[in-house]
Amino acid sequence: MTEIAPPPDGAGEAGGSGGSGGEATGVEAAAAPPPPRSRDFVQSVDRALAIIRSFGPQTPAQTVTEIARATGLTRAAARRFLLTLSELGYVASDGRQFSLTPRVLELGYAYLSSLTLPEVAQRHIERLVAEVEDSSEVAILDGDDVVYVAKATGPAIMTADVSVGSRMPAAATSLGRVLLAALPDDRLDAYLARVELPPHLPRTVTDPAALRELLVCIRAGGYALVESELEEGLLAVSVPVHDRSGRTIAAINVSTHVARRTRAEAETVLLPALRRAAAAIEADLAR
Fold it and tell me: By the 8 A CB rule, do 10 and 21 touch?
């Protein structure tokens, strides 16, 4: 995952209150005595989780000073925890503010997989595969990659077999392009400015300007179709999965082979079935 590095150790926080960040102590500035803890209680874990919990709908991005205030830590202590979480991939920084990354989802994966998207999606993609007799996957965007969170395999065997947890470059997959097309313009601009687009195959899109044009069309049309860009002969069509607010949270695809289906069949046969499956997943998630 490509992230902007946080300020170097000892550097001041740009725009924050209180001048430089070279505080000498990391002792908590507790407003009240903490409740009794067991002898096995690990305070560092508690503090790191407190920092993660300080982010929310009203505070998606925060400065070190704001996080310190919210958690009761000193600014120096909060900064050290943030730099550690950043190295581990759980937070990202633009040099002034910190925000959570999708990797935080790993902390609750066992719970999430039993209650939300992966389990809900699995039922529907299995029905989809039974209908179209091709494979289907569901993925989320994590940095510059897609991460597969559910899959159902059809009877046709493809070389590019993926498992749950596998990562693929977003730019070269139909799943990734649907998710990239849903990004706000500023995040999409940043992605296109930094991403490398290697030529996996002769048909792979390697020009950022050409990719942007494709993403604009995908955003307007509501689906992505990719042929022979990551694996020779692989034909895949994807659509977004939305939450109840309309935000794109995942993408679902059907993948097949050009020897089995044409691009026209992907649009006339697979796409309608795919959209029905996505709508069914959205309906279940909204309950």
Answer: yes
- Which tokens sit at 19? 């001048």
Whole-angstrom distance, CA of residue 231 vs CA of residue 165? 19
The answer for 55, left when phi > 0, alpha when psi is -120 to 50, beta otherwise, is beta
Contact 271, 237 (CB under 8 A): yes
Cα–Cα nearest to 164, from 148, 142, 176: 148
Residue 171 has pLDDT above 70, yes or no: yes
Q: Cα(98)–Cα(51) distance, rounded to whole angstroms?
A: 11
Residues 121 and 88 in one domain: no
pTM of the entire structure?
A: 0.61
Contact predicate 286/117, CB 8 Å: no
Are residue 49 and residue 143 in the same domain, yes or no? no
DSSP strand pairing (145-152 vs 98-100)? unpaired
Buried b (16+ CB within 10 A) or exposed e, 189-205: eebbeebebeebeeebb
- What digits encode the pLDDT tens for the residues 192-217? 999 989 899 899 898 999 999 999 99
Identify whether residues 115 and 186 lie together within a single domain.
Answer: yes
- Domain boundary, last residue among 36, 66, 100: 100
What tens digit of pLDDT does each residue of 242-259 get?
988 899 999 999 999 998
Q: Which domain holds residue 14?
A: 1-100
* Residue 192 and residue 63 share a domain: no
* Boundary (domain end) residue, out of 100, 135, 164: 100
**pLDDT reading at 27 higher than 80:** no
Provide mean pLDDT across the span 111-130.
Answer: 81
Nearest to 251 by CA among 185, 168, 187, 190: 168
- As given in the structure block, the two tokens for residue 18 are 């209180």
Residues 113 and 196 in one domain: yes
pLDDT digits (tens, 9 = 90+) for 38-93: 888 888 899 999 999 999 888 999 999 999 999 999 999 999 999 999 999 999 99
